[in-house]
Amino acid sequence: MRLYGTCAFVALLFLSSLDSSEAFETTVQPQNASQVTVSSERPNCTVCTVTGVNDTQTTCHPSLDLVPGEKVKLRFTCSEPIEQSYSVTITSLIECTEKLCEPQIVEVQSSILSEFSRTFIWKLKAPEKTLVRLQVLGEELTETSKPCTDGLLFSMVASETNEAPTQYCRGGSIAQLDFSNQGLMVLEAKPQIKVPSALFQASSGPLEREMTVTIGPSSTVVLSREPGEKECEVCVVNGTSPGCSATEVTLKSAEKLSLKFKCLKPQEVFQMKMTTELACTMNSCTPAVAEVDPDFFKGFKKNITWDIINVPDKTVITLEFPKGLEEKSSPSETCKDGFQYTVSTMRLNGQLKTSIYCKGLSGSKLDYFGMKTVSVEVPKGGELEPHVFSLKAAPRGGKSMSVTSDPKTKVIISRKDKKPDCEICATIKSVQECNELKVTLDSPHSTPVEFTCSEPQSIFSVEINREIDCTEESCLGDTVHAQKSFFPDFNRTFTWDLKVNSTRAFDLDFSETGLRQIPNEEMCPDDNTYSIVIYSRSGLTNIGTFCKGGPVTSILGRYKGRVSLTVPGNAMLDPVNFKLKVGPETKMLATVKIDLPRGVSDINIVTPNYPGDFPDNEPIQWMFSVPDMHNYTISFGNAGAPAECLNGDVEVEYQKEEKNMTKSLMDPQPKQQQGSFNMILKNCETNRTLSGLSLSYSVSVMRSGHPVFCTVDLSTHKGVSMQIEKVGSDTFCEMTIDSVPKEKINVAAGTKAKLSFLDCPREDVRLTASKIIACDEITSCPSFNLSVPPLGSCPPMPLLSFTWHLKIPKEATLDLRSPTGSLRQSLPGQECNQSNSLHIVEEENFSLGEFCSDGVIKKLQVHTNVSITTTGQDLKKNVEPLLNVVVSPEIAEDIIYRVEPSMLETTILATPSWPQGMKPFSTVSWIVDLPSHYKAHLRFTNVSKIKCAERHTCIKVQYLGHKEELMSRREDEDVEDQVLKKSFYLNISNCKPEKMHFGVRTIIALQKKTNWLAIILGLCGALVVLIAVLATICVLIRKKKAKMNTESSIYMGKGNIFRPGDKHFIKTQADNDSHVYDYIDDTMVYGHLLSGSTYNDSLDLPKGPQTDSYQTFTGPTDGPPPVSKEPEPEKEQYQTFLDPSETFVPPRPRTPIDRQNSLGFQDRRMVDNELYTFKGKAEMNTIHLSGPEMEPDLPMPEDSL
C-alpha cells in the first residue's frame, strides 16, 4: 500500500508541474475499532473517494469520515502543499470495567496516512469511582510545556472537566498515567514520523488515592473541601477516629495515619489547615524551630499556623526567617509567588496588631512583644522550606547594664531607627524613667539602664561627651583616653569639648602613634575614625578626618574645639591616647605639625571643610619636618580658588630658615627642595553666595642620595637562592629588585636580578643564602662536600649565613663527616665558636644541635632531610669545605653517632638539641669505639624524668656484635653506670611525653686495662731465667777452675798467641775464622749509646745484670800452659760472659751464618753512622772487604806492657 501511495505521490508531483493544484491518491483501510476523520481547513482543498470502473466516480468533501474496516481509495486535491493542508484524526475507545480494560494493549495503526499530521485520541470509559491506569510501554515520559523534538506529543486529561491538558514528551521517568472514568489520552504525530505500534497497557481498579501522614503531638490538621469543587470523599483508615467525610475531617496527633481519597486529584478538591502550638518561657521556646515536612500534603493549598502560648509578661520573642521577609505596603497587596506570612501580636493596650509579609531577599530577624500567632499561606502546588523560622525568648529588658560616667562626662543614648518597638529605662534617684527616643546620663554615680528589646544596639547609638575647660583647670600635658567599657556593642561616638583662652590655642599631641588624614567622607580601616572641629568666628570648621598611624604628630586649634572618635558597633576600640596642653597665643585657625617619614612617601592633605569652603580671612599653618638627605615636592592637585574675593587675596606663604616666599594658588610650588619648612594658607573675604576656597595637595618626599647598582646572577649556581633583608626598625636603607622597592629581597634559584641599594650601610642589611641539594634515588646521589659557593661581589655586603637543604629518598641516610676528621657537639660549657659552627635541623624543624670540628664524633648519620646552616662575619671569604656528605642505605634509627672517646679527657654524649629534649618517637644511637688496652666507664649524669602518654622510653647498652643487652631501662626505671671493656652500642628511644621533654646526658671516661695474666707469666719467666743464670754461672766457674789448673797462656802485645809445644795457633787472625761471630747483640755492642735515651726505657727491660762488648782476658798468667788440644770450631767463636738467653735482655733472633753475615761483607743499605742503621727496605747489596779492612785495630792496655 505504501509503495502504491509513493508512486501516486510522485505522479502528483509530475502533474503539479503542469497544473497549479496538487493531487495525491492513496488507498487506506481503517481498523474496525477506530474512527478515522480526514479534514482540511483550507477552502480550496478537498478529499475525494474514488469508486467505479476505472476510478471514474469521485465524491469530494472538505472533511471525510472513513468507514471502520472498509478499504477506500482517496484522492487529495489542494492548491497548497498537501502535507500542511490536511489533518487526520484517529479516535479509539478504551472501555473498562472495575477490574479489566479492553483493549489491554493500546495500539495504533502507525502506517495509516503517515504523510499527514495525525492525532490519535483514546477515550476512556469506565464505571464511576473507577481508576484507569495506562502503563507506558517502551520509552517513559516527562512532563513538558514545549514541543517535543521527536515529533510525538502526548497529552492527557485525567477527567471530563475543562481543565487544561497535561503534556508529555518521551525520555523521562513517568511510567504510568492515571485517569478517572471519563479521561482522555491524545497523541499528536507530525507528518512522516513513525509512531510505535504498542504504546500503553490499560488496567482499572477502584478510584482511591492513599496517603500516610504523621501529625505531631501539638498539631491539629483540618482537611476541608473548597467551595465549588466536585465531590470527593476522604477516609481515615486507622487512628483513634476512623471514618469518611466528603466535606471536612479533623486530624490530631498520630503516627503514620493512613488516608484514602476517593477522587483522582484530592489536592484539587481539599485544602489543609494545620495549627501547631509553640510554648515559650521567659528564656526559651519549645520547639525552638518551626519546621514542616515538604512532603506533608504535598500539592495541597495549605495554611499553617503556629500559636505562641504561655508567653510570660515582659518577654520578647525574636523570630528569625532564613529566607527573609519584606513587609507589605498595604493589606490589599498580594504576594507575587502566593506565599504570605502573617504575624499577630497583642499590644500592651489590649489591641491585636497584625503584620503581613512576603518573601524577601535576605534573612530577617524580628522582635515582638505580646507574641500570639505566626502563619504562612502556601499556594496550591507550592513547596515550603523545611526550616520556616526559628524563635528565641528573652526578658523584655533585653539588656541591662550599669553606667558610671566620669565627672563632667555625659552619656547620651539616642534612637537611630524609629521602626522597632523599644524603650530606654534609666533609674535615676530610685525613679525609673523610660523614653523611646533619647536618654542623657550625667550622674557620676552608678545608674541602672534597661532596654526593653533584645538587641538595642541595632536601634540606639551612644555618645560619650566630656568637657575639658582649660580656663578653669590645668592642662599640662594630661593624657586623654576613651573608656573602652562603655557600650561595646553599640555605635559609639566619643567627643571631647575643649576650651582655652580666646587668644591661645589648645595643643593636641598625637606623637605616640601619629595620625593620617583621609577624605572627610571616608572611614578608617580599623573603624576608629577621628575628626577635629574648631569653633571659628564664621561657624563650625572641620579641620579634617584622621586615622591612627601617620605623620601628623600635633594639632593646635584656636580657642574652642571638639575631638571626636567614631567607632561602629562590635568594632574593637583601639584609641589614640593623646596629650592635651595649652598652647601659645596664635592668630592661626589651626596649626598642623607633620613629621615626614624617611624614604619615598607621598601624603595627601586637604583644607578644612574640604570639599566645602575654607573660612574667610582665616589662616591655617602646616609645619613640615623633612628628614635629612631628602627632597620634598609640593603639588596642588585640586586647587579651587574663590569665585570672587571681596577683600584681599588668597596667599600661600612658605617659611624656611627665616626666609619667606609668597605664592598664589596658580604659581609653581616648590620642587626638589631640602630642609624643614612651614606652609601658611590664608583666605580672602569671599562672596559667600559663590564658591569659596578649597585645596587638596600632596607632599612627596624622596631620597637625595645615589643608589648602588649591581646584578646578581644565580644561573651558574644550581639550587642557590639569596635573601636580603633590612635589620633594625629605624633605617635609611632603601632596596629595590628590578626597580621594585622591597623590605626583603628574595632572588630565586637560577635567576638574574638587578639590585639597587640607597643609603644601606652593612649594619642595616643582612645577606643570607641557601642551596637545595636533592636526588631521587640512592644510586643517583653522589658524595659531595659542603662549601660556600663563590657568589661574587654583588650584593656589596658580607654573607652572614649560608644554608644547605639536603633532600634524599626516604630509604636513604645522610652520612656527615668533618674534613678535619671529627665533629664536636656544642653543649653547655663546651660551646662551639659561632664563626665555624654548623647548625643542623631536620625537615620537621627539629634542631639536632650545633656542631664544629675537632671532637670525638667521627661520623653522624641522619635518616631524614636536613638543613645545615653556617654563620660567619663574611662567608664569601670561606672557600674551604665544611662537611663531607655521603648518601648511604637506610638505617633503623633516626640518628647514629660514631664516636671515638678521648684518652686524655672525659667525653660527653648528649641527645640531640640538648638540653631541649628529643623528638617524640625518635631513636638515637651511639657506636662507641674503644682503643685497645682501654676500658670505658659510662656514667649517666642527667636523665629526664617524664611520664609517657604513648609507648615508653628505652635506654639500652650492649657490646658491638653481641645480642645480649648489658642494660635496658624504661622511663620508670633507674639507670646504672656501666664499666665496658670493649666497643659498645648505646641506644636511646623516646616516647610521646605527656609534658616536659626527654633527654639524656652521659660521660665516658677511659682507663687502661691491667693484664694480670701477663704479669704472672712474666714473673714465672723471670724466676726460670734467674735459676738458669745461677746454674750457668756455677758450671762456668767450675770449668774455669779446671782450666786454670792445667793450662797457662802468655799474652803477646804483637804477633800471635801461642802455647808452648802446641802448634795450633800457627795462623794469623786473617788466616782463620776465629774472628767470625755467631751473632752480634746490638744492645751489648751499642748499649753505651742508648743509655741516655728514652728508647731504652720504652723497652721496659728488667734491671738485671748486663754484659758489655768483648774485652781481652786479663786474668792470671802464671797458670799452667793450655792443653794442646784443638778446640771445637764453635768453642773458638766469641761468646759473652753470659749467654744472651740467660740474661734479662731479650735476645735477638739468631740467623744462619753465611757469607754475607761475616765481617768480610758490608751491606750498602747501612748508613755510615755510629749505629749503622738501615736507610731503606731494598734488597741486600753486599761488598767484600779486604784483609786489612777486616782486621780489627784493638787498643793495647798500658798494663799489658
UniProtKB/TrEMBL annotation:
Residue ranges of every copy of the CDCP1 first CUB domain listed in the record: 24-96, 209-280, 400-470
Domain CDCP1 third and sixth CUB: 596-689, 893-1003
Protein name: CUB domain-containing protein 1
Signal peptide range: 1-23
Segments traversing the membrane: 1012-1037
Residue spans of biased composition, Polar residues class: 1106-1115
Domain CDCP1 second and fifth CUB as annotated: residue spans: 103-204, 287-393, 478-582, 801-870
Region (Disordered): 1097-1162
Keywords assigned by UniProt, alphabetized: Membrane, Signal, Transmembrane, Transmembrane helix
Domain of life: Eukaryota
